[in-house]
Structures are given as structure tokens and as C-alpha cells.
């Protein structure tokens, strides 16, 4: 087994870089969804949702940077074109979403897809003994599960 300067298995790190780039691409799509629903939300719940979506996209922008920096830390190159993002996309694309329930459902559906990717990375990072990636995924998962719970409560739906 060949180790890199971080003490991680080079082969396992390749898988992590690939999957982190996949997560990065999907976070970029989620970010665009959030910007779109922030700009286009209408109705009686406008003020609350407009503010909430801004909070979510600011948080997402920070996570995007964290993911890209983790790819760099592991010796990779972060994806950085919309072409790459679309190719890797699993997160649903929300176009012209302006109704409150549709917007919140888009957030839930997007986070559900991100969680699937993060759980794969969590397993891989545990297997690679990559505590940096593992910790980041654990934090993301915990926060996103809570957001899904809150959004589902807002929708009056069960988890």
C-alpha cells in the first residue's frame, strides 16, 4: 500500500477525490436551486421563505468551498464547470419554482440526494482512515437531516 503525505492510501484517496467532486457538483446544483427559489418565491409566506432560502444558500456556499478545499487537500482538482456539474447531477433541477410548497419540497428532495452521496463518502472515508473527510461528512449529514426534518414538519409530512 502506497501512502500519500497525509498518511492515506493513495488508491482509496482516488475514490474519495472522485466522490467528493461528485458531491461538489451536486452541491453546486443545489446552490443554484436555492438561489432560484430565493429570487422567485411568491405568496403569503414570501418573507419567511425568502429569508430561509438565503440562509440555506449562504450555508451551501460555505460547504461548496469546504468540499473543493478537501479535494485539493487530498491532491485532486475540484470540478469547476457547469458542464461537469450537469454531468454529475443527481440533485433535481428546480426551474421556475415560485410556489412555497414546491420550493420546500425541492429543498427536501435535493438534500435527500446529497445525503445519499455523503453516506457513500462517509463509508469510504472511514475505510480509508480519512478522519478529515469523515468528520466533514458527519457534520454535513447531521445538519442536513435536521433541515429535512424541519422542512418536512413545515410541509406537515412525516420523515
TrEMBL record:
Q: GO: which molecular function terms?
A: ferric iron binding; oxidoreductase activity, acting on metal ions
Boundaries of every Ferritin/DPS domain copy: 20-156
Domain of life here?
A: Bacteria
Question: Family assignment?
Answer: Belongs to the Dps family.
- What name does UniProt use for this protein? DNA starvation/stationary phase protection protein
Amino acid at each position: 500500500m502506497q501512502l500519500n503525505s497525509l498518511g492515506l492510501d493513495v488508491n482509496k484517496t482516488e475514490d474519495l477525490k472522485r466522490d467528493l467532486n461528485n458531491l461538489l457538483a451536486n452541491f453546486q446544483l443545489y446552490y443554484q436551486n436555492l438561489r432560484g427559489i430565493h429570487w422567485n418565491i411568491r405568496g403569503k409566506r414570501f418573507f419567511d421563505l425568502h429569508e430561509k432560502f438565503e440562509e440555506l444558500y449562504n450555508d451551501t456556499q460555505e460547504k461548496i468551498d469546504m468540499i473543493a478545499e478537501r479535494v485539493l487537500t487530498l491532491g485532486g482538482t475540484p470540478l469547476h464547470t457547469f458542464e461537469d456539474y450537469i454531468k454529475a447531477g443527481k440533485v433535481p433541477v428546480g426551474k421556475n419554482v415560485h410556489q412555497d410548497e414546491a420550493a420546500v419540497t425541492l429543498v427536501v428532495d435535493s438534500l435527500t440526494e446529497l445525503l445519499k452521496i455523503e453516506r457513500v463518502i462517509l463509508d469510504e472515508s472511514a475505510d480509508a482512515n480519512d478522519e478529515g473527510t469523515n468528520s466533514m461528512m458527519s457534520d454535513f449529514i447531521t445538519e442536513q437531516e435536521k433541515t429535512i426534518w424541519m422542512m418536512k414538519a413545515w410541509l406537515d409530512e412525516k420523515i
